[in-house]
Design brief:
2 copies of one chain form a homodimer. Chain A is an alpha/beta fold. Chains A, B: Keywords: DNA-binding, Repressor, Transcription, Transcription regulation.
Chain lengths: 331, 331
């Protein structure tokens, strides 16, 4: 094909990957040749260093709408290229995740994006030796793969500071547990929980620290909130580390006969579509999953093209105030 | 490997696929040989009629939690086998879906499950000539692929009959549109809308038929409900064809200052996890997505094993009454 268009294989590759450094004229020339020849990515792939034009996306599960935001962002970027994303559910345990990654690698994808993986840093670096890799939502630094993450410390600070500013003192937190082999300090849920504790201490509220350890999903939030609301004195605000858990906390408040925000303030994290529904109206932390997914796709394709310098792309979260948080009830 | 275990390739294949007709003793023998040899599915695959032990799952998108139920059911079944599912987002248009299917086929999956595909029946039969295929949530009959579906007419009847029984007469409906090439009568949303109209006519309420055509998602439900609630006289109940749309309808009711169910009853379809949250408490139709996903996995593996007789697996839906529906307000 490259000879038909009178351009180099590198230029064809750049056009296909929508890379920089290709003039509009060259892009048209290559695209025209592609159209004339009834080009199919698979066919070209065989000629171009064995490339398959597929990337693998490992998600813990698909139930969290925040992951749908990430996928939408990734798809938005890939739609400008000839790449396709295959998703695989990494599941809740390391053996399942391990098997999922092996399956993708044996199907010879050109690169991998792993969202909040459970694997150790060593394992991730091992994968990165085999394939270009971008890791989402983990905080460690590696010379072998790219990272896309949000500043979870800044995000948790925004949430807790918002509740403090409203006058809350008995602020509780719902966190997550899994069998990740990452260093705790590199895990987003550990960072959010540690930041919550730090702010409470800094405001002389160490005695009011109350953490329920469950899961970042509806049931986890429901169970965690029930545990927290059974304490005496009862918290006046709950900061859930994820919107999914906050939805469960809202349900637990409802079951306990507490109005939100009159009897209990609830804040989440992720600013999912559900948080924005006016009858849920959840105060949340936005970390722009769409942009994170877009960035991950862009970085991975750059790596596939040959970049070796590790890149770290960090989103700064923002606070979205809605009707689920207000001043605490009068004592 | 088969020679090491002193068993036939067919027996190994049956154990790997968790098929019937294998004695526990044989299963142990094969499993032991697999463990001793450090067996990897990929390695076996090359020896066994080119099998890859991966199947492709084409979903319209991952944002609908009902699809997560389907995936959970599928995964539950595959976890008893050596198969893995690769997902790919079929998207909102036929060209995107076409490209997604091509990508899966060129990566040589052993079979395909397509959920609510937009493709024509001809195209599906064309795919089925190439690969074992199971189609979810479409109603046409084909001699070339298996179907897993719910009885959408029965489900819609349950929802509308429930609202009629509560005393509603001005019942409106929110339906879905896409660029599917299926016969309208084979599409679940067309069936649900037609059943709604039939029941209204049968109860002498043809004059109260009111349908908003938007999308089965939150924004679609919100827009549809706003359109319906602007009519004079206003409907006292809305039957949304999917829970995702019902969530949007609840939000629209909230914005219009209507309490649910006091001012407006809302019923959904799919009985997603969100419908069950006590502060949403949405009356809905359960069609057991988990069981549909499990059945699809089982049928596909049987087809991969050689079954050619087409199978049709139909779930009978049930009505789940919650707090979002009640008698209409006094006139």
């Amino acid at each position: 094909m490259a000879s038909h268009a009178q351009v180099s294989v590198t230029a064809v590759s750049k056009v296909i990957n929508n890379a920089y450094g290709v003039s509009p004229a060259m892009r048209n020339k290559v695209r025209t040749a592609i159209d004339e020849l009834g080009y199919r990515p698979q066919a070209v792939a065989r000629g171009m260093r064995g490339r398959t034009f597929t990337i693998g996306l490992v998600l813990p599960h698909i139930r969290n709408p925040f992951f749908a935001d990430i996928l939408d962002g990734l798809t938005t970027h890939l739609d400008t290229t000839d790449y396709q994303a295959f998703m695989i559910q990494g599941g809740a345990t390391r053996p399942v995740e391990h098997r999922a990654v092996d399956a993708l690698l044996s199907r010879q994808v050109d690169g991998l994006i792993m969202v909040a993986p459970l694997a150790s840093k060593n394992r991730l670096e091992h994968i990165a030796q085999d394939k270009p890799l971008v890791v989402l939502a983990r905080h460690e630094r590696s010379p072998h793969y790219d990272s896309v993450l949000a500043d979870d410390e800044a995000g948790a600070e925004l949430a807790v500071a918002h509740l403090l500013q409203l006058g809350h003192r008995r602020i509780a937190h719902i966190t997550h547990q899994d069998d990740s082999l990452a260093r705790p300090a590199d895990l987003l849920h550990t960072i959010r929980a540690a930041t919550y504790q730090r702010l409470m201490r800094e405001h002389g509220l160490a005695g009011h620290i109350a953490i329920a350890t469950s899961y970042y999903n509806e049931q986890g939030g429901y169970d965690g909130a029930r545990e927290l609301l059974a304490r005496t004195p009862r918290p006046t605000a709950i900061f859930a580390g994820a919107d999914q858990a906050a939805l469960g906390a809202l349900a637990a408040a409802h079951d306990a006969g507490l109005t939100v925000p009159g009897g209990l303030s609830v804040a989440g994290y992720d600013n999912t579509h559900l948080a924005a529904l006016p009858n849920i109206a959840l105060t949340s932390i936005d970390q722009d999953g769409h942009e994170m997914g877009r960035a991950a796709g862009k970085l991975l394709l750059e790596r596939i093209e040959g970049r070796r310098t590790p890149v770290r792309f960090t989103v700064t979260p923002t606070l979205i105030v809605r009707a689920s948080t207000a001043a605490p009830p009068a004592p």
